[in-house]
Specification:
By secondary structure, the chain is mostly beta strands. Helices cover 7% and strands 43% of the residues.
Length: 76
Amino acid sequence: MRLSTTQITGEIGVQWLDHSGAVAVTASYGFEDFSNPALRDRGQFRLGVEIALGKRSVYTPLPFADPFLPVVARGL
């Protein structure tokens, strides 16, 4: 017996972060869909809470460069 299948996977979710950055709440739904009827499709809900203890926040923003800085530096 040969196993030939295609899998489609997807997930969508939302995240809420409080203004202090100490608490994050996430919720998402994901699924796996197989083209082979011998395999079971699967769906799942995820809920999560992250709490930072101490002075460090749950997420630290990434330092992005100013996209217009080269333009301003050239005086354009």
